[in-house]
């Protein structure tokens, strides 16, 4: 597993355009799922960090779908997880190719109160 410090150094080098290898990493692509580019990994990581930081709820909160019809059908949910890093984000199928074109990934995992069904959603799906 790559340390947080190593990733921090790695991201700083991407931002500054440095092509030096990061100490302790054999290859900058070695830990990137499905071999997306370093720049794309850093961009997605920044998006996820921002979404998690601005997320209006925390694990344990009881929320409801913002759409009235979905709320009527599904009822309330309990937030069980919020992905804060790219490594933590699984996406709908766990593949990089499924990163949403609108850069609004599903980072919220919630369990439906009435039957325990687990859903993954975007931050703005619930209120």
Word description of this protein:
The chain is an alpha+beta fold. The chain has a domain at 56-125. It has helices spanning 4-16, 38-54, 68-74, and strands at residues 62-63, 77-82, 108-112, 118-121. The protein has a four-stranded antiparallel sheet with strand order 1-2-3-4, with no helix packed on it. It is elongated. Residues 17-33 have low confidence and may be disordered.
Instruction: Please give the radius of gyration in angstroms.
Output: 17 Å
| Total number of strands | 4
Q: Which descriptor suits the 3D outline?
A: elongated
Give the helix tally.
3
- Name the strands of the widest sheet in spatial order: 1-2-3-4
User: How would a textbook summarize the main sheet?
Assistant: 4 strands, antiparallel
One letter per element, helices H and strands E, the order comes to: HHEHEEE
Question: Helix/strand-derived class?
Answer: alpha+beta
Q: What is the helix content? A: 25-40%
Beta strand %: 5-15%
Task: Note poorly predicted spans.
Answer: 17-33
Mean pLDDT: 80
How far apart are the first and last residues' alpha carbons, in Å? Answer: 35 Å
């Amino acid at each position: 597993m790559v340390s947080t410090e190593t990733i921090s150094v790695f991201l700083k080098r991407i931002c500054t355009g440095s092509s030096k290898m990061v100490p302790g990493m054999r290859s900058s692509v070695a830990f990137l799922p499905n071999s997306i580019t370093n720049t794309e990994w850093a961009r997605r990581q920044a998006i996820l960090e921002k979404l998690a930081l601005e997320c209006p709820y925390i694990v344990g909160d009881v929320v409801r779908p913002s759409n009235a019809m979905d709320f009527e059908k599904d009822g309330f949910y309990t937030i069980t997880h919020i992905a804060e890093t790219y490594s933590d984000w699984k996406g709908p199928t766990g593949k990089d190719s499924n990163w949403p074109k609108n850069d609004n990934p599903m980072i919220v995992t919630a369990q439906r109160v009435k039957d325990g069904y687990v859903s993954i959603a975007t931050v703005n799906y619930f209120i």
